[in-house]
Amino acid sequence: MKKLLPAVQVIALAILSSAALRAQTAQQSEVWQPNTFTSAIVSTIVFGLIGIILAIIGFKLFDAFVSFNLEKEICEKQNFAVAILCGAMVLGICIIIAAVAQ
Q: 0.90 exceeded by the pTM?
């Protein structure tokens, strides 16, 4: 299992990189615009929830790849460095999600 983790990390990084690259090269004609105020609010809520769900999935994947328990390190041991690492990782995932969603 230990030998499989680096390969899975490389595959996940390749998928995220290709998604970010596709988002940058997308044509403007593919952009969807809400026509009414209600559709704008609904689309904001839907895309926000999708972003939050993807960020949680990304965090859970990161937690699965590290060799220690993130929740135990942050909550029980009060490890501030791990908390900063997790915050930076979540922020990075959210930036990638925002780039893809544009």
A: no
